[in-house]
Each structure stands twice: as structure tokens, then as C-alpha cells.
Design goal:
Layout: E1 2-5, H1 13-22, H2 32-40, E2 43-49, E3 52-61, E4 66-74, H3 83-92, E5 102-105, H4 111-115
Parallel strand pairs: 4-5
Antiparallel strand pairs: 1-2, 2-3, 3-4
Length: 137
């Protein structure tokens, strides 16, 4: 049985960094220091199976109006067991994240998962703007 926890003391930061920097398509090359800083400043969710971390996600939020979901993963050898759905459900039902006006996320390949929780393409993409700095990991 899996456990999902927001206790940052339980996080295996080196394992999170290893996955993000070496296996993910969105955070290749991210430094350990950047991962540590991002964890310090986010609401984090660890997924554990028999005390081994097998997944992770973090939320950036003001706890009132907006939240951005990112760095979501289940280790490849544990995918296909419904752990991703349980993780997203735990995030979306977390007491401190209720009543938000807007959620956001970006994904290349998990649209079907997020659609099950109410996510949809941006209604007015022409209103969205961004800065992408390639020199920062």
C-alpha cells in the first residue's frame, strides 16, 4: 500500500534530483541546489511504497487564488499501478488547496491523467505570457 505525505523530512532529495536531472524531459540537467531550493519553497508530495520514495510532485501556490502543479513523476518501474492517479487525487483534495480560483500545469504526455481531475487546455492562450530563461536550471 502506498503512502502519500507532505512531510519534507521524508523526501529523498537525491532521488528526486536524480530523476528530474537525468530521466525527466522537462528538467534535464537541473542542479541539486535548484531542486533543494524548489522543494524548500513549495508544497511537496512524496509517494512511498514500503518506505521507499517512488514518486513526487510539488505545488507552488498562494493558498488563496492560484496553484501551479509541477515536477510530477512516478518512477518508471512503479508506473501502471494507479499511483499517479492517487498522487493527483491527494493533491487536488489537500485541505490547504481547496477553493482556489485557478490551477495550472504543463505536460507533454499526461493530458489524459490530468483531464480526469478537471484540467483542460488554457481557454485564452493569447492572454498567457512567459519568459523562459535557458541559462537557469
Amino acid at each position: 500500500m502506498i503512502e502519500i505525505s507532505t512531510d519534507k523530512e521524508k523526501l529523498d532529495i537525491r532521488a528526486i534530483h536524480s530523476y528530474l536531472a537525468n530521466e525527466s524531459y522537462w528538467a534535464k540537467g537541473r542542479t541539486l541546489e535548484t531542486v533543494q531550493r524548489s522543494i524548500e519553497n513549495s508544497l511537496c508530495f512524496g509517494v512511498y511504497l514500503e518506505n521507499r520514495q517512488v514518486g513526487f510532485a510539488r505545488v507552488i501556490t498562494d493558498y488563496a487564488v492560484f496553484a501551479w502543479l509541477l515536477d510530477v513523476f512516478i518512477l518508471p518501474e512503479y508506473q501502471g499501478n494507479g499511483y499517479g492517479k492517487k498522487l493527483i487525487r491527494a493533491i487536488m483534495t489537500h485541505d490547504n488547496l481547496q477553493g482556489l480560483r485557478r490551477w495550472g500545469l504543463g505536460t507533454d504526455d499526461a493530458h489524459g491523467l490530468y483531464k480526469q481531475f478537471g484540467f483542460a487546455p488554457v481557454q485564452k492562450p493569447e492572454n498567457m505570457m512567459e519568459i523562459i530563461q535557458t541559462s537557469h536550471q
